[in-house]
Design brief:
Bound molecules: zinc ion
CATH class of the domain at 500-615: Mainly Beta
Largest sheet: 8 strands, mixed
Shape: elongated
Strand order of the largest sheet: 5-4-8-2-1-14-17-16
Strand content: 25-35%
Number of strands: 32
Number of helices: 11
Structural class: alpha+beta
Oligomer: single chain
Length: 619
C-alpha cells in the first residue's frame, strides 16, 4: 500500500514536471523543396514536401500558409496600406499599383495533398487556408505535398528581381510557407509590410537554374565540388555543366529559408576565430570593390563582439549578400544594399548580422514584439559599432528618436501589432528606438553587470524557443533579484513617460534638503549625484518600492548613500544631505543619461549659480 502510494506520488510528481516542460510546446516542420528558376521568364516551378509535427495539445482541422509574393499585385493589402499611410515607405509608395502583368508577383498552387490525398484550400491574398481531410491529432504528424508556380515580382521591397543595384534575384518570402501555431493560436497574418515569424524546422532545398548564376543563401551548400565559384577546395578543377546547374542547400533548426542569385557575384570567405565562416556575395565593381573588402574585417570583429557579449552564434556559416534594397535579415544570411559609403555598409551589416541573435536564434514574434527583435538588434549593434569605433554616447541616437516621437504627438504603445500602427514613424521608433532604450535603461535599473549577465542568460535559456516579453523580464528578474514587470508594462504597453525634476533646495541646521518631483506618469528609482565644491561626488540612491530592492553599486569611485525607497504613489520626495549648501556645487538626477527622462531641463541645479531657498516649478 505504502509502495503503491509512493509509486503514485512519483507518477503524479513526474507528470507535473513533464507538464512544466510542455508549457511552451512548439510546432515543427521539415521542408524538402525542389525548385527550378527560369531566368528568362522569371518563373519558379516548385515541388514542396512538408512534414508537419503537431506538438500542441490541440487537434488541428486547418492549417495556414503564407503566399507572400501575392502582395506584389495592384490592389493587394500591401498596396492599399501604402496608399493610405500618411508616411508610406518610399521604396513601396505607389509602385505596386503600377506593376504590369509580367512584373507582378504571384504564387499559384497547382496541387496540394495531405498524406497522399488531394485536399481543399482557399486563398485570400497572401494567406491560404487549408482544410485538412483528416484532423491532425496532438503529438501526430502529417505530410503535405504541394506543387506551385511563382512569378518573381520586379523588386519592390525585400523580394524580387532586377533591383536598383542590378541584383538579378532576391529570393526571400519566395515559397509557400506554413504559418506558426502556438499557445496564442494561429499567426497567419496577411503580408502588409512586416512578415517575420515562422515554425522551427529543417530545410533541404535544391535550386536548379542557369549555371552562369551564383547563389548565396540560408544553410550549407551540400555539393560545393560541383558548384565551384570559390566553394570548392582550392585547386579543385570545376567544370560547370552545360544547360542547368542544381544547388543543394541544407539548414537545420531555422524559421525560414532565403537566397539570392546573380551572374556577377564575387564570393569571398573569411573565418571568424571561434565563430562561423563568413561568406560574402557582391557584384565586384567600382562601387563595391573597395568597401566590401574593408567591411569583411568589420564583420569578423562584429561576430567576435556579439559572441563574447551576448552569447555564441549557433550556426557554423553566415552569408552577407548584396541584395540592393536596404537590409533584411534571414536565417544564416542577410541581404543588404551593397553600394554607398563604407560606414553605411558596416552599419547595415552590423544591424542585420545582430538579428542572427534576436530574430534567427531567439525568434520572438516580430509582428507582435518588434521591440524585442529590432530593438535588441539595434541595441547590440550600436554596442558593437561603439566597441569598433569608440563613439561616445552609444545609444544617444535611440534616445533622441524616442524623445522626438514623444514631441511629435504620434507615439503609440510599442506593444501593438507591427502592421497596425497609424504611422510608419510610430512603428519604427517603437520597434527600433524604444526597444534599444528599453534595454539600455535596464542597465540603470538593475546595474550594468547584472544586465549583461542577464542578456547572455536570456539568449542561452530561450534560443530556438520564441520567447515572449515576460520570458525576457523573468530572466532579468532572476538575474538581478529585482522586480521588473511594472517596467515592462509602463514602457512597452503604455505611452506613459518619465519626467523627474528637482523642485526645492533649502538649507537648515548645517544640512541641505532637496525635494524631487515625479512629474511624469511612469515611476523610476532615482540616482541623484551631488558634486561638492572640493570636487568629490556622492550618489544618493532612492529605490522605487515596486523594484523590491536596490541595484548593486555600479561605480566604486563614488560614495553611494542608500535612502528610503520612494513609494510610486507619492508625487514628491525630500532628502537630507548632511552638508551645508555652501559646500555643494550641483545636484543632478541621473547624470549617466540612461533614464529616458523626457525633460532634462529640471534634472540639474547648480547651487553656485542659484540663491537659496531655490524653487523651481519644474515644468
Ligand atoms: Zn532590423
Amino acid at each position: 500500500m505504502l509502495k503503491l502510494r509512493i509509486a503514485l506520488l512519483i507518477i503524479i510528481f513526474s507528470y507535473g514536471i513533464v507538464n512544466a516542460q510542455d508549457y511552451r510546446w512548439q510546432q515543427r516542420v521539415e521542408y524538402s523543396m525542389n525548385v527550378r528558376l527560369d531566368t528568362k521568364t522569371h518563373k519558379v516551378a516548385g515541388d514542396q514536401k512538408l512534414v508537419y509535427y503537431n506538438n500542441s495539445p490541440d487537434t488541428l482541422t486547418k492549417v495556414y500558409y503564407h503566399l507572400y509574393f501575392n502582395a506584389f499585385q495592384p490592389g493587394s493589402m500591401m498596396d492599399v496600406r501604402s496608399h493610405n499611410l500618411p508616411d508610406p515607405d518610399r521604396r513601396v509608395g505607389d509602385r505596386i499599383s503600377k506593376l504590369k502583368e509580367d512584373e507582378i508577383g504571384y504564387q499559384h498552387i497547382q496541387s496540394l495533398k495531405q498524406d497522399g490525398k488531394d485536399i481543399s484550400y482557399h486563398i485570400d491574398g497572401t494567406v491560404m487556408e487549408v482544410i485538412l481531410s483528416k484532423p491532425l491529432l496532438p503529438k501526430a504528424k502529417t505530410t503535405f505535398d504541394l506543387k506551385f508556380e511563382a512569378q518573381v515580382p520586379v523588386q519592390i521591397r525585400r523580394s524580387g528581381r532586377n533591383n536598383k543595384e542590378g541584383i538579378a534575384y532576391s529570393m526571400t518570402q519566395w515559397y509557400p510557407k506554413l504559418a506558426e501555431y502556438d499557445f496564442q493560436g494561429w499567426h497567419a497574418y496577411p503580408y502588409v509590410a512586416r512578415e517575420f515569424h515562422g515554425v522551427w524546422g529543417d530545410f533541404d532545398v535544391k535550386i536548379t537554374l542557369d549555371p552562369s548564376y551564383v547563389i548565396g543563401g540560408t544553410g550549407k551548400l551540400q555539393n560545393p565540388e560541383l558548384i565551384g565559384h570559390g566553394y570548392e577546395k582550392a585547386g579543385t578543377a570545376v567544370k560547370k555543366s552545360e544547360g542547368e546547374l542544381t544547388w543543394h542547400f541544407n539548414a537545420k533548426n531555422v524559421i525560414d529559408f532565403a537566397w539570392a542569385a546573380d551572374p556577377d557575384y564575387a564570393h569571398d570567405r573569411v573565418q571568424v576565430p571561434n565563430g562561423p565562416e563568413l561568406h560574402f556575395f557582391y557584384q565586384n565593381n567600382e562601387k563595391t570593390a573597395d568597401t566590401w573588402k574593408k567591411m569583411e574585417a568589420s564583420a569578423v570583429k562584429h561576430f567576435q563582439f556579439m559572441n563574447e557579449t551576448f552569447g555564441r552564434y549557433p550556426f557554423d556559416t553566415y552569408s552577407i549578400i548584396q541584395g540592393g534594397d536596404g537590409g533584411m535579415e534571414y536565417p544564416m544570411c542577410t541581404l543588404i544594399m551593397g553600394e554607398g559609403t563604407l560606414n553605411a555598409l558596416i552599419g547595415v551589416m552590423a544591424h542585420e548580422a545582430s538579428h542572427s541573435w534576436y530574430q534567427m536564434a531567439l525568434a520572438s514574434n516580430e509582428s507582435l514584439y518588434a521591440w524585442m527583435d529590432e530593438g535588441f538588434t539595434d541595441f547590440s549593434s550600436e554596442e558593437s559599432l561603439n566597441a569598433m569605433a569608440g563613439m561616445a554616447n552609444t545609444h544617444l541616437g535611440s534616445y533622441q528618436s524616442y524623445f522626438a516621437l514623444v514631441a511629435s504627438g504620434l507615439q503609440e504603445p510599442a506593444s501593438q501589432h507591427s502592421d497596425h500602427f497609424n504611422t510608419n514613424r510610430a512603428y519604427s521608433t517603437a520597434a527600433y528606438s524604444i526597444g534599444a532604450v528599453f534595454a539600455h535603461q535596464l542597465k540603470y535599473l538593475i546595474g550594468t553587470e547584472n544586465f549583461y549577465k542577464g542578456m547572455k542568460k536570456y539568449y542561452n535559456t530561450w534560443k530556438f524557443r520564441h520567447p515572449e516579453p515576460n520570458d525576457f523580464i523573468r530572466v532579468m528578474e532572476k538575474t538581478s533579484g529585482l522586480q521588473l514587470h511594472w517596467y515592462l508594462r509602463y514602457f512597452i504597453y503604455t505611452t506613459k513617460r518619465i519626467d523627474y525634476g528637482i523642485s526645492d533646495i533649502i538649507e537648515s541646521d548645517e544640512s541641505t534638503f532637496a525635494t524631487l518631483q515625479r512629474i511624469g506618469e511612469m515611476p523610476m528609482p532615482i540616482d541623484l549625484v551631488v558634486t561638492y565644491k572640493d570636487g568629490s561626488k556622492e550618489l544618493f540612491y532612492i529605490s522605487m518600492n515596486e523594484l523590491m530592492g536596490n541595484k548593486p553599486v555600479e561605480d566604486l569611485t563614488m560614495k553611494r548613500t542608500e535612502l528610503d525607497e520612494w513609494p510610486w504613489v507619492n508625487p514628491s520626495y525630500t532628502l537630507k544631505i548632511a552638508r551645508k549648501a555652501s559646500d555643494i556645487e550641483s545636484l543632478e538626477i541621473d547624470p549617466s543619461l540612461r533614464m529616458a527622462d523626457i525633460n532634462r531641463k529640471n534634472n540639474k541645479v547648480t547651487i553656485a549659480e542659484k540663491t537659496l531657498p531655490y524653487k523651481n516649478p519644474t515644468r
